[in-house]
Every structure is written in structure tokens, then in C-alpha cells.
Amino acid sequence: MDVAKYMPDDLDRRIISHLRADGRASLAKIADALGVARGTIQNRLDRLLDTGALLGFTVRVREDYDDLTVRAIMLIEVTGKSTTQVIRKLRGISEIRTLHTTNGSWDLVADINAQSLSDFDRVLREVRMIDGVANSETSLLLSTV
Q1: Is the dihedral of CA 85, 89, 92, 98 positive or negative?
Q2: What is the CATH class of 3-51?
Q3: DSSP per residue over 20-83, as a string?
Q4: CA atoms of 22 and 64, how far apart (whole Å)
Q5: Residue 137 contacts by C-beta under 8 Å, 6 or more apart in sequence?
Q6: Global pTM?
Q7: What is the pLDDT of residue 7?
Q8: CA–CA gap between residue 140 and residue 119 (Å, rounded)
Q9: Predicted pLDDT at 62
Q10: If the chain, 145 residues long, is cut into consecutive pieces of 10 residues, what is the mean pLDDT of each piece?
């Protein structure tokens, strides 16, 4: 199936919504909740995965679960046309939970979760040493309000 031409429909969006609320839900439970056959859910999930619309399944934890970790947002400026190379290197840093492209003065936004301040310091040094990273600005996340 051509990924570029695939557009999720209402049922696909409802399946994804249900999985966001309960990623461990069985096919039968999702089918029952949405009023469709179990086979329909299986086929739709297969198609969502095959086309890349759904990348996989993951675990969500409470915000306070990792209270002893150091969390931060790093804004990153990339030089020239090195964005792809920089992204590849950033993805190799396990403490970077998510990475986003953005507009404005900064090119990338990294969500960092480190086990300690020394780990956090190491991550900052690693990012700043990547060829193509021109500048960065980091803010520690103190509390969720």
C-alpha cells in the first residue's frame, strides 16, 4: 500500500484514540467498544502499522513516576544542511525521549530525561559536541502544574 496515499478514516482514528487511552486493550475489547468485528480491528491495525500511520505501542507512566529524574527541554540550532545528520546522532542518545523539528530561531526541540545531574551534564556535552549543532538553550522542568 502506498503510504503517501493512505488517509486514516473515522474508524482508524477511533481505534487510535482507544489505544491511546488503553494501549493494552485486546482486539476483542476494542471491537466491542467500537461496535465492529474483531477481524476488522485486526485488519485496520495491520494497515495502520504497515503504512506507518501507527508506529507501535508504548508504555505511558504517571508524570510523578520519575520524580527523581532530571527532565529538561533543549532548543537546538543546526548549521546549514546538517539537520538529518544531527537528528541521527541525537536519536542515539538514550536520555532524549522525544525529538521535534520546529520553526523560528531553533531547529529542533529535545525532551531530555536523565537519571542524575551528572548524566544530564553528560547529555548536554554530548549534544553540544555533535558536528552541525551551532547553539543550544536548555531549561530544566521543575514541576508539572
Answers
A1: negative
A2: mainly alpha
A3: HH-TT--HHHHHHHHTS-HHHHHHHHHHHHHHTSS--------GGGGTTSEEEEEEEEE-TT-H
A4: 19
A5: 74, 75, 106
A6: 0.59
A7: 80
A8: 13
A9: 67
A10: 69 88 89 95 93 79 69 96 94 93 94 93 96 96 82
Helix axes 38-51, 10-21, angle to 10 degrees: 90
pLDDT of residue 54: 84
Q: Please tell me the predicted confidence (pLDDT) of residue 61.
A: 66
**What angle do the packed helices 38-51 and 27-34 form, to 10 degrees?**
110
pLDDT at 56: 80
Give the domain ranges of the chain: 3-51, 65-140
Quick one: how far is CA 114 from the chain centroid? 16
> Considering only CA atoms, which of 121, 112, 74 is closest in space to residue 94?
112
CATH entry 3.30.70.920 includes domain 65-140: yes
Grid cell for residue 25: 486493550
Residue with cell 542515539: 92
